[in-house]
Amino acid sequence: MNRKERRAANKRRDSTSRPGAPGFGSALISIADLAAQASRSYGVGRFNEAQEICRQILAREPAHVQSLNLLGLMAQGHGDHRAAVKMFVKAIAADEVNAACHYNAGNSYQALGNRTKAAAHFSKTFALGVEDRAVAFILQSPAIVSYIGRIAVKWPLPVTNVELFGTESVAALASDIFLRCAMETTTLANMQLEMLLGYARAELLRLAGRQGSDDGDIDADIIGFACALARQCFINEYVYAQTEAESQLAGELRDRLLRDLASGAAIAPLTLAVVAAYFPLHALPAADALLRRDWPAPVAGLLKVQLREPFEEMAERSAITALTAIENSVSVEVMRQYEENPYPRWTVNPLTAFVADQARGKIALTAERQAKLDILIAGCGTGSHAIQIAQVYPNARLLAVDISMTSLAYARRKTRELGLRNIEYAQADILELGSIDRTFDSIESVGVLHHLAEPMAGWRVLVPLLRPGGTMRIGLYSDLARRVIVEARARIAARGYRATAEDIRRCRQDIFREAEQWKPLIGAKDFYSMSGCRDLLFNIMEHRLTIPEIAAFLNDHGLSFTGFEPFDDPTVIEKFRKQFPGTANEASLDQWHRFEIEHPETFWDMYVFTVGKNTH
Q1: Using one digit for the tens of pLDDT, what is the confidence trace for 262-279?
Q2: 444-482 b/e with 16+ CB inside 10 Å = b?
Q3: In DSSP terms, which residues pair with 377 in a beta bridge?
Q4: N or C: which end of the chain has fewer CB within 10 A?
Q5: What is the largest CA-CA distance in the chain?
Q6: CB atoms near residue 570 (< 10 Å)
Q7: What is the pLDDT of residues 288-341, one digit of tens each?
């Protein structure tokens, strides 16, 4: 699913927080205009006026979500969380996939001390796709801001746990339900937050180290927080730095857990959670015995993620077909990388709201989307891309191939969880796909070809597999945009860092200490997980291309450029049109090349574009 389609899918969801247009006071004025005026009044602090407009709207449309949400926010702002909850619950009843309303309800339930309902609404918020905003919401917490400030005062020197947390240990963090839900769900890509959570992990290690088999004097919130942090560490693949002393203590705690497990002795939930924050549980010997014990709910959730799901993925491997041989030496090395670090480790279906709206008839299933297309995903990784396409085109038949069996097993598990039946997964090397004797209406290969020994050779293999009149969506690294990556890779090579977990952790800390120089890296989400950082900076093979090289390939192989994907930054198109006044042509690769020279950061992620195959 491309960015344009994702924006269309999310447009209704976001609209509750962005109404706009003038006027109020008459039944002749549209509800949309009244809602816009209510939002403006609220924005400038005229709350009585905003409330009156919302009541006028609700008199005409009692289930108007924007008005209910706005009244809830105003009640929340005045500390009346019971009244706020009533408004948010009504709004959610009218629109159950409205992420903003779930988030607001979660905040009020937390203020009322109803942690169970707060967690349920915050979890729903993440399920509806607000991962990218999680860090910003977390950093609104005064306690977290205070902790980050204490770290910053001494940076780059470390702080002691007493200097950071005082006598309260991690109690303030543990009481933050949104933080806990975020840690359970998504990679928290922020340097300051990573440092804070690293210190929190060390503090939990200290607490667990002084415990026996009983957590009787440990608050339930602390255990819940420890389980959430362990899930975060599992999601980011243990990318956080740790001191030698910390590593030794963690190893000793792990060994104690294994002895207790073997002997049948009691194991404290905090001990298990802290071990899981340093080591993946599924990698421990005889760890399946943990599943035969009774645990509190947060620990059971942790075991599901770190034991049950990995075991399911291991079982999935036997069902995956090997479609082609993998013999190219570079392909073998790339396969080894993604076997060790499958990428990306995603958790949330980004189209939850889209699918729900479609099921309720709020999004029409167009003729194009109902078509029985044959689609090839060449390099599907852990399945997020293929799963999105399968949901947008429910009648399509997808073949999703990847070089990594571990990634495919992850993809199969996620596909089964979502109940999708139109994806066939297989292991294959793109360089060998010419032997499969199949053709497709659409082929997608985003972020894959540039990791082949010869990207253009892989692309040439795909062209004959595309039917005449078919479309191909391609993603390739930009030579101009990735200059900072080239510089970083050279620095890594000069310092002798290897693609091991320990060296990747050390390298990341060096980059943090030189933050001003490496802002683009520190701002990249991939930097905050082990597999992401390895893919970003330590990839065994990376090629970067230019727009003229892409244009030459298209010309030589009967393909027509139809456009780049919509940009996240709307000013890109504004700048493009300004550079070519009156003659701007978004389908002109020559103009885009000239534009990129002036704006080399444009394709920081990669060139993502669509081409069509000529019919003659």
Answers
A1: 999 999 999 999 999 999
A2: bbbbbbbbbeebbebbebbbebbbeebbbbbbbbbbbbb
A3: 400, 444
A4: C
A5: 79
A6: 8
A7: 999 999 999 999 999 999 999 999 999 999 999 999 999 999 999 999 999 999
